[in-house]
Design goal:
single chain, alpha/beta, Rossmann fold, seven-stranded parallel β-sheet, two-stranded parallel ribbon, binds NADP nicotinamide-adenine-dinucleotide phosphate
C-alpha cells in the first residue's frame, strides 16, 4: 500500500469532485475516487494514480465496501457527492425529488462520515471537508428541496465539529455559489439543456470546478491545528444569490 497521505473524494466522476481528486493527487495524496459511474472513476484513477471505488453514498452496503477499500487509516475525506433535483415551488413539490436530495446531500454524507471516521481518527490528524452550498445559507423561490438539504449539510457539519471537539479531526465546509460544471444544472433540470444554460446565461466568469478544488485543497492542507470552519466562495459577478451580473 501507498505511503502517501490518503484522501477519499465522493462524487469524483464529474465536476467539483473530479477536479478535487486531480488537485489532491497533484498535492501528493493517493486519492480514492468514489462515485456510481465506474467507467469515469476508473479513467480518473488511472490518470492520477489513485484507486476507483464504486460507491452509492445512499447505500449502507456500498459505503461499507468503500470503508473496507480504504482500510485503517485515512487523512482526508471530501464529502462532495450531492446535487439538486428539480426546482418546483413548495406548492408543487415532487416528494421523491425532495427525498432524493435529502438522501444524497445529508444521509449519504452522514453514512460516509460514520464509516470512515475511525480511519480519520487513526491518523491523528484527519480532515473532513463537506461540500455545502450558498443554498445552505439562504432561501430562494423554487429551491425549497435543495436549500433544505444543503442547510442540512451545514448543520450536520456544525454538529460533527462540536461532537469531535476532543478528537484529532478537523471538520470544515465549503459553500460555493454559482459554479459552472458540466452536469449540475443538467441533472437538476433532467437533461433540459436550455434550462441548464439559462442558469449561467450572460455570466462572463462563473466559478469553475478548478476554483473550488483549489480552495478545498488549500483548506485540507492547512496545519492540523487550523480549522477553516466554513468558506463561502462565489464568482465576482454574484454579489448575492439574487444579484447576478449578466451581460446581454
Ligand atoms: N455547481 C454548482 O453551482 C454548485 C454550487 C454549490 C454547491 N455544489 C455542490 O457541489 C457538489 C458537486 O457538484 P457539481 O457541480 O460538481 O455537480 P455534478 O457534476 O453533478 O457532480 C455530482 C457528483 O455527485 C455524484 N453523486 C450523485 N449522487 C451520488 C450517489 N448517490 N452516490 C455517489 N455519488 C453520487 C455524481 O456521480 P455519479 O452520478 O457517478 O454517482 C457526481 O460525480 C454537490 O454536492 C453540489 O450540491 C454545486
Amino acid at each position: 500500500m501507498t505511503s502517501s497521505p490518503t484522501a477519499v473524494v465522493t462524487g469524483a466522476s464529474s465536476g467539483i469532485g473530479a477536479a478535487t481528486a486531480r488537485h489532491l493527487a497533484a498535492a501528493g495524496y493517493h486519492v480514492f475516487c468514489a462515485a456510481r459511474r465506474v467507467d469515469r472513476i476508473e479513467a480518473l484513477a488511472e490518470e492520477i494514480g489513485g484507486t476507483a471505488v464504486a460507491c452509492d453514498v445512499t447505500s449502507e452496503e456500498s459505503v461499507a465496501a468503500l470503508a473496507a477499500a480504504v482500510g485503517e487509516r485515512l487523512d482526508v475525506l471530501v464529502n462532495n457527492a450531492g446535487g439538486a433535483f428539480g426546482a418546483s415551488p413548495v406548492s408543487a413539490a415532487v416528494s421523491d425529488e425532495w427525498r432524493q436530495m435529502y438522501e444524497v446531500n445529508v444521509i449519504g454524507l452522514m453514512q460516509v462520515t460514520r464509516a470512515l471516521l475511525p480511519a480519520l481518527v487513526a491518523t491523528g490528524a484527519g480532515a473532513i471537508l463537506n461540500v455545502g452550498s450558498t443554498a445552505g445559507r439562504i432561501a430562494y423561490e423554487g429551491g425549497g428541496g435543495y436549500t433544505a438539504a444543503k442547510h442540512g449539510t451545514q448543520v450536520v457539519t456544525e454538529t460533527l465539529r462540536l461532537e469531535l471537539w476532543d478528537q484529532p479531526v478537523r471538520v470544515m465546509e465549503i459553500a460555493p455559489g454559482m459554479v459552472k460544471t458540466d452536469e449540475f444544472a443538467l441533472v437538476r433540470f433532467e437533461g433540459d439543456q436550455a434550462k441548464a444554460d439559462a442558469v449561467y446565461a450572460g455570466v462572463a466568469e462563473p466559478l469553475v470546478a478548478d476554483d473550488i478544488a483549489e480552495a478545498i485543497t488549500w483548506m485540507v492542507t492547512r496545519p492540523a491545528h487550523v480549522n477553516i470552519d466554513e468558506l463561502v466562495i462565489r464568482p465576482r459577478a454574484q454579489a448575492a444569490q439574487h444579484k447576478v451580473h449578466r451581460q446581454s
